[in-house]
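Q: what sequence does this backbone want?
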């Protein structure tokens, strides 16, 4: 018999009409932004990039062979529907003239690319060494929470070069048997970290990555819901449907099938 899981909601602020991070409308807690870069104590750089849908072995990266200052990364989403599959490409690197990149340790897991970029000083410089953020990495919640007249808008993903760019986009597919498949981006969250909770009105989901990477300040929490009126035929109760879900590469997929369908 499955044990009841108690959710600690004290960390999830209730902000009517607001979103926690403009990079993802379903994120309610934790580090914001499509990309995060920080300088570690050993002077290496930690780079975190959200690439939901890209398999763990599907990312590529290389260092600029000429200047040794930029890391190029790219990856493709694996979908049977090639039309809506996203392709990503972007850069991260050094903004100083005194250092060069000596190595990149890259790991892709659950739709998040994490890189440790090591560097070495090759000449003296009067100014402090810096790193740069590529353009449009996302304001990600940096709006004035005290001004209730300002509403934040969810931003486009800056590294999507093909496919849907909106980070609040979710993919919906209606099949011939009447079932509906809906996908949500929950980067960093695996299937073991997600709860899907249907009731008579909606299908709610909650995701929290239990494994926090050593250079991330905290976990990330995602919450959302699907309206039953959108999913069901008129007069057919939501709870009479077959509801199945799975999560892979940082994307939650929920399938709702009518009671008379042969869902597999």
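A:
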């Amino acid at each position: 018999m499955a044990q009841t899981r108690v959710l600690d909601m004290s960390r999830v602020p209730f902000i009517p009409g607001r979103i926690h991070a403009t990079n993802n409308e379903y994120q309610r807690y934790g580090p914001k932004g499509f990309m995060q870069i920080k300088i570690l104590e050993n002077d290496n750089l930690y780079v975190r990039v959200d690439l939901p849908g890209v398999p763990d072995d599907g990312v590529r990266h290389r260092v600029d062979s000429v200047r040794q200052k930029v890391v190029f990364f790219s990856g493709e989403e694996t979908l049977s529907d090639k039309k809506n599959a996203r392709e990503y490409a972007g850069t991260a690197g050094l903004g100083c003239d005194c250092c060069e990149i000596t190595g990149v340790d890259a790991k892709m897991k659950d739709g998040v690319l994490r890189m440790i970029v090591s560097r070495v000083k090759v000449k003296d410089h009067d100014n402090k060494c810096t790193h740069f953020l590529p353009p449009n990495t996302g304001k990600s919640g940096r709006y004035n929470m005290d001004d209730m007249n300002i509403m934040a808008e969810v931003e486009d993903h800056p590294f999507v070069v093909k496919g849907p760019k909106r980070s609040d986009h979710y993919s919906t597919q209606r099949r011939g048997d009447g079932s509906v498949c809906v996908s949500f981006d929950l980067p960093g969250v695996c299937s073991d970290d997600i709860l899907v909770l249907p009731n008579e009105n909606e299908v709610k989901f909650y995701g929290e990555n239990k494994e926090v990477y050593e250079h991330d300040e905290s976990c990330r929490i995602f919450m959302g819901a699907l309206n039953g009126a959108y999913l069901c035929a008129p007069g057919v109760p939501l709870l009479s449907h077959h509801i199945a879900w799975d999560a892979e590469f940082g994307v939650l997929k929920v399938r709702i099938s009518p009671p008379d369908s042969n869902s597999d």
